[in-house]
Amino acid sequence: MSIKDLAPELTTLMAAFEDQLREVVRSEVEFIRLIEEDLVTAGGKRIRPRLVFLSSSALGGVPHAMELALAVELLHSASLLHDDLVDDAETRRGKEAAFRKYGNAVSVLSGDYLLSRLMALLAQTRCMELVAMFAEVARELSEAEVLQFQIAALGEHSLENYERIIDGKTASVMRVACEGAAVLGQAPPHLREALARFGRLYGQAFQMRDDYLDLMGSPEVLGKPAGGDVREGKVTLITLWLLERYPEEVGAILKRRGGQPEDIPRLRTLAVESGVAQQVEAAIAARVEAALGALRLLPASSAREELEALALRERVRVR
To answer: Which of 81, 177, 189, 274 fits 111 for a cystine, CB–CB 3.0-4.6 Å?
Structure first.
């Protein structure tokens, strides 16, 4: 079976996912309904449910894959609602952030509503191990967000802290999407470990690419100004390495959170001229290679090829 052979099956699954997602988040409360229409059912990359379906297919099909796919997307969406408020974000996916339209309380409580729907989905699987895994991921997510806020406030910048943040914020959810399928399918330990490792490494590469694009990407392609992380006080891999090269100049820019008009263009110029931009690209590529290595333990299949293609995309993704 080729990748083309799997495509119709995956397209059908994703269409069914979208239909069921609308049903799962349906509410008679208008503000909740409006927020879910803006954020949850308005689309997006849908990478996490795609990981679930491909991991399931790579294992020959597992029970409750749809419930797992819905649960990981709801966890991701709930975290976005809360993150935007913490980060004081202006927009989300090109639209005004929910808390700015409806207020802090409505945004937070709507995120809690999504978490309640997530718990109901996990209950349907009757798999306590999966419930425990989601509880652990929720802890990692929360700690990573608080750590990121702490680092921005206290200036505790380090590569170790950056790795902890991307592990908790992004890689943990990608990991549970892949490993969760193995748990539901009662896969052998070596296949479960392979999928867990792939999900974690792919998630790291994905977040590293996002962070790189935030500074170095095209504002026209991304649909937002460059340097949002700098303005929010976040130090990512590219700014961390620039800070090591130019502690005084870059340190001053980060301290004032890119507050002067020339700050972000200057960081972009320094990243290219110093070779730091290329170093980050190489670091992303290395993480992708490690993710591909984890997948080699899985039997050859079109689903495995699709997972490989997702990882390889992080080398060249521009939005």
So the answer is: 81
Instruction: Compute CA 143 distance to the chain's CA centroid, rounded to the nearest angstrom.
Output: 15
**What is the mean pLDDT of each successive set of 10 residues along the chain, which is 319 residues long?**
58 94 89 75 84 97 98 92 63 52 70 93 98 97 90 90 96 98 98 98 98 97 92 95 98 96 98 98 98 97 97 97
Whether the model pTM is above 0.90: yes
Exposure string over 252-270, b if 16+ CB within 10 A, otherwise e = ebbeebbeeeebbebbbeb
